[in-house]
Design a protein that fits this description.
7 helices, 0% strand, mainly alpha
């Protein structure tokens, strides 16, 4: 019993969209229990990834910078070329994220996070572009609770 509860909470914190399906169909939980478990899992995921976003970004940037410098040294490129500021390159992915940010704002990012982006990716985007504030966390957690209720009723009555 405890393993199933832990599994649903963990699943809700990582891949929220499928957790109500597993909770109701596989574990035979009630709607109320499913809403509670998936909401708790999503909230834990949001809080965890929100507070880990900055340290992960810093570590990632240090690793990337160190790797770039090592590659440049191996190719015998002078120190002055390494220190030049590189021009920003916008990929399709970057453009898409910026378009969503500009078009829908924090509310839009928070709304699509549990279903489309997944909790880790959506939280990372929200914290990166809108800072770690109580407003950001409130929007993200509200979206998780909304989708938890909507998906639980959908699975229980429609699916």
């Amino acid at each position: 019993m405890l393993n199933k509860i832990t599994y649903i909470i963990f699943l809700g914190s990582i891949k929220f969209a499928i957790s109500p399906f597993f909770s109701i169909l596989q574990c035979n939980h009630s709607i109320a229990k499913t809403i509670l478990l998936t909401s708790v899992g999503g909230t834990i995921g949001i809080l965890s990834f929100a507070f880990l976003t900055k340290p992960i970004s810093i570590a990632f940037n240090l690793i990337v910078d160190k790797t770039r410098k090592n590659l440049f040294f191996k190719k015998f490129i002078s120190q002055s070329k390494i220190m030049k500021k590189q021009k920003s390159v916008f990929s399709k992915k970057n453009r898409r994220v910026i378009r969503v940010k500009q078009k829908f704002g924090l509310l839009g990012v928070a709304t699509i996070t549990p279903i489309i982006l997944s909790i880790p990716v959506g939280t990372f985007i929200a914290v990166k572009y809108y800072s770690l504030s109580s407003k950001t966390l409130l929007f993200l957690i509200s979206a998780v609770i909304f989708w938890s209720v909507a998906l639980s009723f959908f699975v229980a009555y429609v699916y």
